[in-house]
């Protein structure tokens, strides 16, 4: 019997970052034109395609940097160049910003931004990587009194005599213009054929636990495909816990920390039966759905019970291609999901709110799909005409998610642990007979990404 412990305080960041969109939902009829009033950033289409999938036969995946195509408009008057013969770096001071052209990138910097990000010893602590400058003490009308650029560095002298230096490469990496071309998470979107052809290897348990290379290979696969396997695991809950702790902190939820489950209906959810489960993501009813789900089948004496995996981002990409307006609707209409449980001693009522497709507001990159038709609550966040268009968009996405060619079916066996990116890949299961026991846990996403970054991966 699982414990019915309380859930810790949910995280509102994901939705709060889009909170400025909310009033528009409430008061507009939601026509295509009203969506485009949402701001200039939303006019661009979301970015999904990142890394081409590996051709058959190639081995370990490599993540290329994305090509940077930065349009550089013709130079205007009064450009200052680092050297007369060189166009490598040029700058121009405007009334309220500095324009800098470097390495084929045209960047525009607000003066307060330039003062705020000063990396001098008095403004920034390089031991802690924290800002010491009190941003609120910067005059909002500040303007540099002198500007100089050499081959590598921009020098700004402020009215009080303070000097700020920026490496030009640092500026390219950190400017808005540089960032908006970048994706946060390089991915390979897949259907069953693409995934099979890629021949992504499972990582051996010992190499996963004992070597950085094994762990890195595993995490690279996980980041690119949203699923990854570890094999030769001792089939116990304790050994599965050791695996989970190698890459992250375990996220304790109302289901406990490490859970076992079987078809005993010990909890008020279809997962605890022998019934089939259509593709879905878990914990859609949390304000921040769990980032990763770990499954390890410890026992199955019976038939059926295969696991279904579908890349939600691949399906979303198809929707974007066929019907960008529908993609946009799915990314704008906030939905509630709900978990209401009153079985035995377990009493829970969880509510999570957010759209089906969640995109980063600054580059429109898709980062989270929230899709669970079982747990979707009453729709009461948008007026009736938007509701109808939302159902049509949901149908388009569902049709993509249900295409047989997008379904990857696997039979989980004792010894093989599966890690699923619950923000991207949907899972389901075939009905089964006999005794079947799964164990697993949820992981905190930040901590998985932390481990990946510490190993030098882009995450
Ligand atoms: C994995 N475990 C059996 C512990 C929980 C299952 C949660 C099921 C729920 N309907 C959801 O999709 O979130
Ligand atoms: O039984 C299974 O294979 C998976 C059930 C499920 O969807 C879950 O536990 O989240
Ligand atoms: Fe599930």
TrEMBL record:
Pathway, per record: Amine and polyamine biosynthesis; carnitine biosynthesis
Secretion signal, residue range per the UniProt entry: none
Subcellular location: Mitochondrion matrix
TauD/TfdA-like domain sequence ranges: 202-442
Entry-linked CDD domains: CAS_like
First-listed, main subcellular location of the protein, grouped into a coarse class: mitochondrion
EC number: 1.14.11.8
Catalytic activity: N(6),N(6),N(6)-trimethyl-L-lysine + 2-oxoglutarate + O2 = (3S)-3-hydroxy-N(6),N(6),N(6)-trimethyl-L-lysine + succinate + CO2
Assigned protein family: Belongs to the gamma-BBH/TMLD family.
Stated role: Converts trimethyllysine (TML) into hydroxytrimethyllysine (HTML).
Protein name in UniProt: Trimethyllysine dioxygenase, mitochondrial
């Amino acid at each position: 019997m699982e414990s019915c412990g309380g859930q810790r305080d949910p995280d509102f960041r994901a939705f709060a970052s889009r909170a400025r969109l909310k009033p528009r939902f409430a008061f507009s009829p939601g026509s295509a034109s009203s969506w485009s009033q949402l701001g200039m950033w939303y006019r661009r289409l979301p970015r999904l395609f990142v890394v081409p999938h590996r051709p058959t036969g190639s081995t370990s995946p490599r993540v290329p940097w994305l090509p940077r195509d930065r349009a550089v408009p013709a130079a205007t008057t009064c450009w200052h160049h680092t050297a007369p013969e060189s166009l490598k770096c040029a700058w121009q001071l405007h009334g309220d910003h500095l324009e800098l052209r470097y390495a084929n990138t045209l960047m525009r910097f607000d003066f307060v931004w330039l003062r705020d990000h000063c990396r001098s010893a008095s403004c920034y602590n390089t031991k802690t990587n924290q800002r010491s400058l009190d941003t609120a003490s910067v005059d909002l009308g500040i303007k540099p009194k002198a500007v100089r650029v050499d081959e590598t560095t921009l020098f700004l002298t402020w009215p009080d005599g303070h000097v700020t230096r920026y490496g030009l490469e640092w500026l390219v990496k950190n400017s808005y213009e540089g960032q908006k071309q970048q994706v946060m998470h390089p991915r390979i979107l897949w259907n069953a054929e693409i995934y099979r052809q890629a021949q992504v290897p499972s990582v051996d348990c010992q190499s996963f636990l004992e070597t950085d290379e094994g762990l890195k290979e595993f995490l690279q696969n996980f980041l690119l495909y949203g699923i990854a396997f570890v094999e030769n695991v001792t089939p116990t809950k304790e050994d599965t816990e050791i695996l989970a702790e190698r890459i992250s902190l375990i996220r304790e939820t109302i289901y406990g920390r490490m859970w076992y489950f079987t078809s005993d209906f010990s909890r008020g959810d279809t997962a605890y039966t022998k019934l089939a489960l259509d593709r879905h993501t878990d914990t859609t009813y949390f304000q921040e759905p769990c980032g990763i789900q770990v499954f390890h089948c410890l026992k199955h004496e019976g038939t059926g019970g295969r696991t279904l995996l579908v890349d939600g981002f691949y399906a979303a990409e198809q929707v974007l291609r066929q019907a960008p307006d529908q993609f946009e609707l799915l990314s704008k209409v906030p939905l509630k999901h709900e978990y209401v449980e009153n079985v035995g001693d377990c009493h829970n009522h969880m509510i999570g709110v957010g759209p089906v497709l969640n995109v980063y507001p600054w580059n429109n990159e898709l980062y989270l799909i929230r899709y669970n038709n079982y747990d979707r609550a009453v729709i009461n966040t948008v007026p009736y005409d938007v509701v109808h268009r939302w159902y049509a968009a949901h149908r388009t996405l569902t049709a993509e998610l249900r295409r047989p060619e997008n379904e990857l079916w696997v039979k989980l066996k004792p010894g093989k642990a599966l890690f699923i990116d619950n923000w991207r890949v949907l899972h389901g299961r075939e009905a089964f007979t006999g005794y079947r026991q799964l164990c697993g846990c949820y992981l905190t996403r930040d901590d998985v990404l932390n481990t990946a970054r510490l190993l030098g991966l882009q995450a």
